[in-house]
Specification:
This protein is an alpha/beta fold. It has helices spanning 9-24, 26-58, 64-110, 112-118, 120-134, 137-161, 163-171, 173-210, 212-218, 221-228, 232-273, 279-292, 295-319, 376-383, 406-412, 427-431, 440-449, 453-457, 474-488, 504-515, 530-535, 553-556, 560-565, 570-582, and strands at residues 338-347, 350-360, 365-370, 391-396, 399-400, 413-417, 492-496, 522-526, 538-543, 546-551. The longest helix has 47 residues, at 64-110. The two termini are 65 Å apart.
Length: 583
Amino acid sequence: MTTRGDDDPATGHARALLRTATRYSGARCAALCLVSTAATGAGLLLPTALGRALDLLLAQVPATRWVLYCAGLVLLLALLDAAQTVLTGTVDARSTAWLRRRLTGHVLGAGPRAADRFGSGDLVARLIGNAAEAGTTPAARAALLAALAGPLGGVVALGLIDWRLAAVFLAGAPALTFLLRAVARDTTQSATRYQRAQGRIAAALAEAVEGFRTVRAAGTEDRETARVLRPLPGLSEAGYRMWGVQGHAAAQAVAVAPLLQLGVVAVAGVLLTRDLLSVGEVLAASRYAVLATGVGVLVGRLAGLARARAAARRLGEIRAEPVIAFGARRLPDGPGRLELRGVTARRGGRPVLDGVDLVVPGGTTLAVVGRSGAGKSLLAALAGRLADPDAGEVLLDGVPLRELPHDDLRSAVGYAFARPALLGGTVEQAIGLGLASPSPGRIREAARTALADDFVRRLPDGYGTPVADAPRSGGESQRLGLARAFAHGGRLLILDDALSSLDTVTERHITDALLGDGPAGTRLLVAHRAATAACADAVAWLDGGRVRAVGRHEELWRLAEYRAVFGEGAESALAGAGSEAEA
């Protein structure tokens, strides 16, 4: 895709999105354009038919045919208006749905960088509100031709009645042109500011909702409400500005349009007194003057397009974020050897991991420990390519992860997280998420390994219980997440603090199952407890974004600084865990 040289990437992506959305509903857009143009044409014919019928009636000549023409045109206009309403709603809905699907897929494909840049709340606001506004563009563009044809057709019709009528109208046309350009420009600017303020409020609200327990515990509801609504004055100002622009334009149109209409009617009256026009032609001229000055319709169309354009640009900013690209190199057979070579990863402009070199032999378990902020979760994300390093490379069985196809990578690497997102209709579907053909036996075996089978069977419908209706604690949610990782299998299993909400006895049982008869392959554990690290074959100690040491837990435990990673009381907690396990 190419963009114009004077455009920023977001604008170019916005144009491409709108072009593709228009093509997606191309047949309906064409039908809408035809229906709208036909309605405009019928509207242009009606004044002539009315004028002709009036002239015949005044001359006491039978006018039945022309009256029927008028009735037919009115009925046709009603039918075309109904069809236009249905087509507009259909195109708007289809375009909005297409934009949301495309942008949602892009956000998921871009990975954490999109959420880091925009924030989850702002992303939701863009995918819902801005997509709906941008989705009106194809229908608005399809109907714009008819909206322009009305005034232009009115001017042409005035010229056909008498050239002096068209000349009177065209004398004021530059003022109308200037008005329309100002509306489009000013509405785009104010709509952009308005939508940005909406995004900031949405982002702050998402943060507050996610941390509502903390807010209530701290008793800071009023302070948090004030923080969420802090952008509200800017939103109000932008909103007043946006609607003020349209109100100002409407006021100018109300001032200019009647003057032009009055000028046309006055000239028509003079021509009537000189027998150069008939009464019916004067009636038609007055109606065409109204059509020619249909600035209100154009102002509304242009303002809507301007708001949609501003919304589309916010969607274009999302599209400008690059998605993770995959290769075509096949993954050879292997034990799941994981290797990080010179890996550097930055977040917020600072290096979180700096030149990390690490090897996890195939079939072994490595625990990653370190103080908060040492980069443990980021290393876990890089190990399975949920994110890419800024420098260096990550290899699985000798193949850089960047060169693997998507399906090969995702089938080879399984994940479990501290706060798993349980997606799917039922508990069984949540555990089998990502499996091509999950069998009930495989799902239940994984649940037993994660010590989740007992509490799942106690649910109202067992494994068929909807996830939303399954009451569970934080530890039970973690066990379901572990069951999903165990059911996934693969040669590399990554547990990012996935045991943190479990009691020590349950954690020990799951760790024993994981290292014993559980899933085979290589295991990478982000550990916060000394007991978890003690069960691993080796421990990688992260400190200051670098690997400070790799070795057995018992060997590293001799170092006071290593023991300090687990906090005070770690020795007694480790001893207690061991005695509980023995019991």
